[in-house]
Amino acid sequence: MNGSRRNTLMAGGLAAVIVGMVGMSFAAIPLYRLFCAATGFGGTPSIGPAAAPGGNGQTIRVRFNADTNPALPWKFAPDQKEVSLNLGEQQVAFYHATNEAAHPVTGMALYNVTPEKVGKYFHKTACFCFNKQSLAAHQGMEFPVSFWVDPAIRQDPSTSDVQVITLSYTFFRSLEDAAETGALAKAGPHVGPLSARAAERPDAN
């Protein structure tokens, strides 16, 4: 093999490696999210079509947390700070957001649960995450989330002592903003539509 042909083959091989590495980098976040959703790793709630089995008489508390990335001029908070629910029983909770800017602004929410070890037992069946939400100037909107906690959490020695789960949502202006903070890699995926109550809040200016 002459030197020119060898150099051509080496260049082609190097190009293939670079293309493969670029492809893997783009696939890394979606694959990580699928792994988290299947295993509950990193506090990612379990996602799937499984229906709530019904209450078993045991209860657990779920706290609701809300954060807003500084780039998004919204006020965002849960309607309730905490609920007590029966294990295995479906629950619906609401968050609300108000656009404090004098012009329309679009945001997108990500979520997670803590402690991280309960992720596989926290089942979200519908929410507003990963959908672009657009609010007009000073408009307010309520966003529902539907979930249930698997009774198996009490049979697992590593989670049997957990009495409180915190469900956290963070609104970002874009997925790019979320990726820069590292939040995107740990976020659970969207699980289907649940219509938001899109009425103007009474306190909107």
Automatic annotation (TrEMBL):
Name the principal localization, coarsely classed.
membrane
Domain of life per record: Bacteria
Question: What membrane topology was assigned to this protein in its record?
Answer: Single-pass type II membrane protein
Please give one Gene Ontology molecular function term for this protein. copper ion binding
Q: Does the keyword Transmembrane helix apply?
A: yes
Stretches of the chain found on the membrane's Cytoplasmic side: 1-6
Protein location: Cell inner membrane
Q: Does the keyword Transmembrane apply?
A: yes
Q: Which residues lie on this side of the membrane: Periplasmic?
A: 29-205
Swiss-Prot/TrEMBL keywords: Cell inner membrane, Cell membrane, Copper, Membrane, Signal-anchor, Transmembrane, Transmembrane helix
Q: Return one Gene Ontology term, BP aspect.
A: respiratory chain complex IV assembly
Membrane spanning residue stretches: none
One GO term describing the cellular component: plasma membrane
HAMAP family attached to this UniProt entry: CtaG (MF_00155)
Family of this protein: Belongs to the COX11/CtaG family.
Free-text function comment from the UniProt entry: Exerts its effect at some terminal stage of cytochrome c oxidase synthesis, probably by being involved in the insertion of the copper B into subunit I.
The protein's matches in PANTHER family, at most eight in alphabetical order, are given as: CYTOCHROME C OXIDASE ASSEMBLY PROTEIN COX11, MITOCHONDRIAL-RELATED (PTHR21320:SF3), CYTOCHROME C OXIDASE ASSEMBLY PROTEIN COX11-RELATED (PTHR21320)
Question: What is the protein name for this chain?
Answer: Cytochrome c oxidase assembly protein CtaG
State the organism of origin: Rhodopila globiformis (Rhodopseudomonas globiformis)
